[in-house]
Write a structure and sequence with these properties.
By secondary structure, the protein is α/β, with parallel strands linked by helices. Helix content is 31%, strand content 23%. The chain contains 13 helices and 25 strands. The strands form 7 sheets. Strands 3, 5, 6, 7, 8, 9 and 10 form a 7-stranded parallel β-sheet that branches. Helix 3 links the parallel strand 8 and strand 9. Helix 11 runs parallel beside helix 13.
């Protein structure tokens, strides 16, 4: 399975008309992961801009909002929080932009192409404002802080701007905008902001859901804007996380994915007892709620995938055997320039530990081609680490300089675009080969698969994922439904999807 596109994006830090136009992908961005049956809407280009039903129906005061989301899994989760806040104010979601009294666009600032897409979309909204002068347009999320003055004053594209930590203030910002003032709040909190808010779930399948456990990032990778747009790391109370997971399971959900810009850096200290809960402990507590609840997490920095985390994963069958472990480059010299805090040998040591402690664990990665000063030798080291790590899939990008980052300030983006694209294509070709080998090895294996719904190929087929995060398509049998676990024998595979049949 291969995910690729043009500009750099760090999965470590960032994976939808509510009645979002949830413009998905970890970013109107090229495909990160395309398969016959894409189970992650945020990762598939063709899903961007499609309407998705809501699970929760709350009464409306007649006012409608249209919410469109770009970016990563955290943006997806944040859009659910925004929808809940607006619903509590009596506003109802709509899939039809013409019906909306409020248009909101949840943005990503990770990639240049993302910003271009969002600017273009905002200009398109002007048509609706001409038809309906009282219509309000707002920008949410990562672009809010960086481009607030341009949106509000120079280009006059929007009526309000709210950063990732300011969604509680949306009702007040909307009231200000209605009174003719431009509402703005881009304050970055040092505390977890939304721990007590129950997100309004999107009814993609009613089986899988995201739970945000922490926000922000302290790693300061030189190419990444996340510390500046999302702020410092802060973690939720483990009690609220467990309560949310328990509620989801009782409502019929059978899989949760723990989210954070750097999810495995989770650390929460009880304000009264001083007791500290780390990520390994939290992972174990969520998995202990019920053996029928699958637990995943996304996405991790290699330094935080400790042996404790690995042994916890190995100890519980319902913790999925899949780790996203971004490498970014196979060259120690480039890794130092990226400020990744590890070198090639140390990273391969983590890969070895995963293989030793969890032999059946699948590993995926992020890879950036053409970072500042990257030579052909550096590039070859990246290709070689891909072979050694044996990634089941990768998210692959060519480097694009982001304003305000340490790399933009201190390093020269000196690899020409033709070279970047050639190196990226070589990375993609190699990952295709490795992924194909992975899927071929799965033929003849039997996996437990959680049914997520009907296959897009046929109404007579189900789709679901195995523990290793691979999509499996198989014929239906009477009496089975979404949310059931089944054992599936793999008969054949494509480049991205496994095909099989249910076995007793």
């Amino acid at each position: 399975m291969v995910a690729s596109h043009g500009d750099n994006f760090d999965m470590t830090n960032c994976h939808s008309v509510f009645y979002f136009n949830f413009v998905t992908s970890k970013t109107s961005f090229p495909v990160y992961y395309k398969s016959e049956e894409n189970s992650h809407p945020m990762l598939d280009e063709h899903l961007q801009g499609t309407a998705i039903q809501t699970v929760d129906d709350k009464p409306s005061n007649g006012r409608r909002f249209y919410l469109e989301s770009y970016g990563c899994q955290m943006n997806f989760s944040d859009s659910e929080i925004v929808a809940s806040i607006l619903a509590d104010e009596g506003m109802g979601p709509t899939r039809q932009i013409e019906e909306a009294d409020i248009i909101l666009i949840n943005t990503c600032s990770i990639r240049e192409k993302a910003e271009e897409s969002i600017r273009k979309r905002l200009k398109e909204f002007r048509i609706y404002k001409k038809r309906k002068p009282e219509l309000l347009v707002g920008v949410l999320g990562c672009m809010a802080e960086r481009l607030k003055s341009k949106f509000l004053e120079e280009e006059q594209l929007v009526d309000l701007v709210a950063g990732p930590d300011a969604y509680r203030d949306l009702p007040g910002l909307l009231r200000k905008a209605e009174d003719g003032d431009r509402g703005i709040n881009v304050f970055l909190s040092r505390e977890e902001t939304y721990a007590d808010i129950s997100p309004m779930r999107l009814d993609e399948n009613g089986v899988t859901a995201f739970i945000s456990i922490m926000r922000g990032c302290d790693n300061m990778c030189s190419f990444c804007v996340v510390p500046f747009t999302r702020g410092r790391e802060r973690s939720r109370s483990s009690y609220t996380i467990l309560a949310e997971a328990r509620d989801l399971f009782e409502r019929g959900y059978r899989e949760v994915t723990l989210l954070g810009q750097n999810v495995d850096s989770y650390k929460w200290q009880h304000p009264e007892t001083g007791e500290v809960t780390n990520f390994a402990q939290l992972l174990d507590m969520v998995a202990a709620l019920d053996t029928g609840l699958r637990v995943r997490f996304s996405t991790s920095h290699p330094k935080d995938i400790t042996d404790e985390v690995l042994y916890t994963m190995a100890s519980r069958n319902n913790i999925c055997k899949y780790i996203h472990l971004p490498v970014q480059s196979g060259s120690s010299r480039i890794l130092e320039l990226m400020n990744r805090t590890y070198d090639r040998d140390w990273y391969l040591g983590r890969i070895e530990a995963i293989r030793r402690i969890i032999p059946d664990c699948a590993v995926s990665s992020d890879i950036i081609a053409g970072f500042c000063t990257e030579s052909e030798m550096d590039h070859q080291e990246t290709l070689s680490i891909m072979e050694l790590a044996d990634y089941s899939m990768s998210y692959m990008f060519h480097y694009s300089e982001r304003p305000g980052t340490p790399a933009a300030k201190k390093l020269k983006d000196d690899v020409d675009m033709a070279t970047k694209k050639r190196r990226l294509n070589e990375i993609i070709r190699l990952q295709n080969q490795i992924s194909h080998r992975h899927n071929q090895r799965d033929v003849g294996m039997v996996y437990e698969v959680l049914i997520e719904g009907n296959s897009k190929r046929s109404e007579d087929m189900f789709k679901g994922r195995n523990s290793q995060n691979k999509m499996v398509v198989f014929d239906k049998k009477p009496g089975l439904k979404a949310g059931d676990y089944v054992r599936v024998k793999i008969d054949n595979s494509s480049s991205a999807t496994l095909h099989g049949n249910i076995v007793a």
